[in-house]
């Protein structure tokens, strides 16, 4: 497996994990999971900025806290993103070799 393929797998897998988190959270709250509705902080309702929504990286840069109110973001969101990235790398490795 090439470095480029591994990089694409990590980005894709982390993005799928992040999207899965978003869908699960919205369904749990009785919201629709499609459309133009922006994600917000559950504590202060501040919109999640685009550059604060980069899987794994944003969690580390923000130190696991909301950019506006500082409320802690549960580590389960990071774990789902990392899990998606790992799963994608494993799948790519098994598929391509």
Structure description:
It contains three helices and no strands. The protein has 97 residues and is mostly helical. It has one domain (3-96). α1 crosses α3. It is globular and about 45 Å long. The protein starts with a helix and ends with a helix.
* Major sheet attributes: none
**Number of DSSP helical runs:** 3
* Quaternary structure state of the chains depicted: single chain
- Taking all Cα atoms into account, the compactness measure Rg is 15 Å
The ordered string of helix (H) and strand (E) elements is HHH
Helix content: 40-55%
Secondary-structure class:
mainly alpha
Unreliable stretches covering 5 or more consecutive residues: none
Gross morphology is globular
Give the integer mean of the pLDDT values. Answer: 93
Write a compact overview of the structure shown.
Helix content is 55%, strand content 0%. It contains 3 helices and no strands.
What secondary-structure arrangement, pairings included, does this model have?
Layout: H1 3-28, H2 57-61, H3 75-96
Helix pairs in contact: 1-3
């Amino acid at each position: 497996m090439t470095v480029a393929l591994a990089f694409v797998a990590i980005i894709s897998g982390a993005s799928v994990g992040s999207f899965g988190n978003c869908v699960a959270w919205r369904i749990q709250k009785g919201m629709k999971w499609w459309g133009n509705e922006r994600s917000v902080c559950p504590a202060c309702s501040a919109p999640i900025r685009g550059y604060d929504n980069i899987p794994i990286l944003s969690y580390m840069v923000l130190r696991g806290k909301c950019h506006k109110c500082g409320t802690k973001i549960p580590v389960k969101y990071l774990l789902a993103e990392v899990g998606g990235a790992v799963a994608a790398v494993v799948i790519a490795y098994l598929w391509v070799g």
